[in-house]
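QA checklist item 7 of 12: single-chain prediction sanity check.
[x] sequence parsed
[x] length recorded as 350
[x] structure emitted
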Amino acid sequence: MRWKYKALKRIVSEHPLYIRSRRGLHELSDRLRRRESLSATLSSQSIGMIITEASPNTIYGDYFAAKGLGDQMEKLGYQVIYIPERPVYLWHRIPENLTILISLIHTFDPRPAKKLSNALTVAWIRGYVPQWCEKPWFDHYDLVIATSDIALEYAAKFTHPNKCAGILRLAADPEIFRPGPPVPKYESDLCFVGNIFDVERQLVNHLSIPSGLTFKYYGRLTDGKSWLARYHQGPIAHNKIPKVYNSSKLVLEDCTPMCKPWGCINSRTFEALSCGACLVSNDVPGLEQLFGSLVTIYRNRDDLSRIIKDLVSDVEKRSATGKKAREKILEAHTFRHRAMELKRILANHV
């Protein structure tokens, strides 16, 4: 397909993260033309990842989950491509000889893709569980995998149980998220990394900063009147997050309402532990069973205040916990582990 300059200019103007220049538009055009030829060059073991946006600057976590897993699948001999919804909509352009199509997005309808390709379609549920299952096309997926037992059991009510192929949790890239020296710019007693939009967050309601302690919050904050605004450091690039974790005495985690009830432990948990951080989190089903005392769980405001005061003053406990947390990630929760797990799941169905 020939892409006109005006059409590309319109696309870029709607997505300011992309370069607004003729050179930038030509680069985007070249990328789209390369995407056109993928169908002719795919190997016999090829995976397409349905994501929101294929950019390291994105605020959407599905890209980083897909990329972490995809990089490791490539090391196992698979060819991996990423099929984004934006800034250019490519969900309708599924290569006909793709082997496996994995969707990380509940709004993706696999039915048109099945007309374009014979690929095995896989739904990877990482949250938004009811939204996934209530879509009219959910039963059209060939396989369903999820990041928790609770989510997978619920999904089995909306499709044939034999399609529910297994658990594939999120993970961390230990080469990116690794222990390191503190960076003065990011140093604090407490930190939190996450986007806070219009959904009520447990951490916002339960956290109070003890007198004398420093707190830094990184991420998107839509409510400028929130009490968090005074601590807000702005958005942070994904590859800078390890510096934040390594520069904070305590890392606070807050699993969102879209994930928490379903036991879908988010990527921030794995990433913080991979850095050897001392992590404090709200209570997520399965979290304690997975990590035991390596994650300190709070259940109410008083509980959180007590935990913060105790851990901030206990250097030895923080250090010992962080070291064991890193070992746990390396032992069982890297994307290398997840790639091997996915390969075993696919071996039973491809």
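[x] summary fact logged: Residues 1-19, 34-40 have pLDDT under 50 and may be disordered.
[ ] second reviewer sign-off
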